[in-house]
Amino acid sequence: MNTENDINTKEWDNPDNWSSIYFSKKDSRTYVPKRKQKGFTINFGSSSGSKWIYYLLAIFFLLGCFIGTLFTVVTIQMM
Fold first, then answer.
1. Which residues contact 26 (CB under 8 A, 6 or more apart)?
2. For 7-37, b where at least 16 C-beta lie within 10 A, e where not — what string?
3. Which parts of the chain fold into alpha helices (H)?
4. Strand partners, 43
5. What is the pLDDT of residue 22?
6. What CA–CA distances, in Å, run from 75 to 23, 50, 69, 72?
7. Domain of 13?
8. pLDDT (tens digit, 0 to 9) for every residue of the chain, 79 residues total?
9. How many domains does the chain divide into?
10. How far lies 7's CA from each of 3, 14, 21, 53, 75, in Å?
11. pTM > 0.70: yes or no
């Protein structure tokens, strides 16, 4: 019988789960070690990992709003 750790390792070793991101619904971990570099990456197939997509989109949206507002204010002041 496969333990959770065995399943996670098997999923991590499967090249089909890797592209520029790691995506495996069978791997229970949110953070997994990178394959060729030091550090960790997010498993976007896990339920908590998929929430990171929304967090990142929200950050980029808010950053875009801030830069757009700043650009508008600076442009108006230059007139």
1. 7, 11, 45
2. ebeebbeeeebbeeebbbeebebbebeeeee
3. 4-13, 47-78
4. 22
5. 94
6. 43, 38, 10, 5
7. 4-78
8. 789 999 999 999 999 999 988 999 999 999 999 988 899 999 999 988 888 888 999 999 999 999 999 999 888 888 7
9. 1
10. 6, 11, 19, 24, 56
11. no
